[in-house]
Fold these 2 entries.
Entry 1:
Amino acid sequence: MHILLTGSTGLLGRYLLKDLSLANIPIVTVVRPKGRQSAQQRIDNIMANLEEECGQKFQPPHVLAGDICEPNLGLKDNDLKWLTENCDSVLHNAASLTFHATSDAGEPWRSNVEGVKNVLDLCEKTGIKDFHHVSTAYVCGLRSDKVLENDLDVGQELGNDYEKSKIQAEELIRSASFLSPPTVFRPSIIIGDSKTGFTTTFHGYYVPLRLIHTLSSVIADEGEDTPGRRLSLDGTETKHFVPVDWVSAAMVSIVQNPEHHGQTYHLTPPNPATTTMTRDVLEKVTGCYGAIFCGADTVIDDPTEIERLFYDHIEVYNSYWRDDPVFDRTNILKAVPHLPCPEVTEDMLQIISKAAIEMEFRWKEPVKVKTNSEEIHAKI
Ligand SMILES: NC(=O)c1ccc[n+]([C@@H]2O[C@H](COP(=O)([O-])OP(=O)(O)OC[C@H]3O[C@@H](n4cnc5c(N)ncnc54)[C@H](OP(=O)(O)O)[C@@H]3O)[C@@H](O)[C@H]2O)c1
């Protein structure tokens, strides 16, 4: 039987495609077409690149063109019949990472809440009971105490619309009585590959990195006499960066072992990075030194031009400009004792940062499988 994977064209989805393929688990994936590329071509390209990377052939996923925002994910009746006959579990990973909604009908509500309702409806229609869902550790919102894996709504304040949409999604899934108890994965801040630094998306950690990298030439022109740039942090705050390869490996191991289904897992590192370590890495990789911690919650009311630009651009991440809570890891340690999370060291963060800078904060899948019009052009 196949597992239905959503979000297979994103960063985590790409690693899930690889790890599920390496585990020989048959995959069906719902993908939307993009630009001139059909859903099939998008996945064919990713699989061709993954096969090259792994040096082996994989069973190709069954690709269904669709969109989680449409009823039945926009699938045709014969696709629903195919799923009923060939699929018994879902790994729902697709989501919008929009932090602030511009309307009640827009993102992140559209994909993360309405999309989840559509995926649940599809499961009910096709008899899929085994549900694995990718949530986020930040459904804990602005909590500062220890967060247990089984906690969800304990009355906490939430930091942004994304967190609100992800908590609503978890609630919908947990109340779907036709499902077996769902498995919920809660990664913290996903960064690139722990060994190569590879990434395809540049949210979270990459936003301040990109900004400082961009501002570095302006800062260099200011000369050495300018005052240091003030950070409204004290340097001891923790940030739970977690490499994408480990998140995916841990998820696929749990998916493969039914005795671990039905639990909630914090996919978080045991030892989070501090803001001092993060500042040091950002300075080394951008060559832009001179950031000073002036205390958590300090109000910088006379910002320099550089400080103003910096704080304006990271405003969307304001709710993460603070100490993380402690994330309990009891369930994840029990389920994957053979897969310890790699330590996010200063060296690893440097590899990850340098890879993103080298990629110029852009990723375009190398085209291995051409679209029809590209093939026609190639023949002319
Ligand atoms: N990145 C993090 O730091 C982080 C942390 C915690 C949890 N998470 C969770 O991890 C999961 C994967 O995140 P990611 O970082 O891999 O994000 P990503 O790289 O932005 O990928 C998002 C994926 O979802 C798909 N998608 C979005 N809306 C869709 C729609 N309406 N119909 C079909 N597909 C749709 C995208 O498809 P297209 O390619 O067509 O756009 C893409 O494949 C998400 O559930 C996210 O909430 C992420």
Entry 2:
Amino acid sequence: MEARPVEDERELEQILDLQRANLARNLSAEEIAGQGFVTVEHSLEVLRRMHQIAPSIVAKEGDLLAGYALVMPVECRAFIPILEPMFERLGALGMLEKRFYVMGQVCVAKDWRGKGVFDLLYLAHRRHLRPAYELVVTEVATRNRRSMRAHLRLGFTILERYRGATDEWALLQWDWK
Ligand SMILES: CC(C)(COP(=O)(O)OP(=O)(O)OC[C@H]1O[C@@H](n2cnc3c(N)ncnc32)[C@H](O)[C@@H]1OP(=O)(O)O)[C@@H](O)C(=O)NCCC(=O)NCCS
């Protein structure tokens, strides 16, 4: 298993397939509670534009996608309007002064959960992005206990919690310094 930057368009399509399978609307209540879920749905066009700015990180076993963690530098703000409230909050917290990027969404395929792929993805983030950024920020729905637990275990800390339209969110940061 290796975690590395996305290499081609086929991998962007694999990300969309895994994303679709983990959208809350495609999961049962038990799966949402026990396994977690993703909220934001991207188009191939948006993933292509993100890729032009910075490649996301994927964990692959042969041709199979075991997981992904999206790289979203602040430049993506212009074409992902659904993230605008998060960027506004980051601005209010003074974060826009710092050299940070957003980890836009993380997902591990069901068969690979609990096997270290989450850590592998974030360690590859740190390896590839630390030269250009001092910290990474992400947002997790607090009812996603599994994702909250994994992020806090890795070293993320909570910047703030707030209520959005669908969920209570925690804004998290992982400071590499
Ligand atoms: C969230 C996700 C990325 C984490 O990857 P993973 O491989 O399952 O994570 P790990 O097994 O490394 O860590 C999960 C942690 O949560 C714990 N956990 C598992 N189920 C839990 C639950 N229902 N409630 C609380 N904690 C739970 C595990 O024990 C583990 O903690 P530990 O290492 O301290 O024992 C993965 O489960 C996933 O893709 N879920 C579906 C999509 C998703 O939720 N994405 C995140 C969006 S923010």
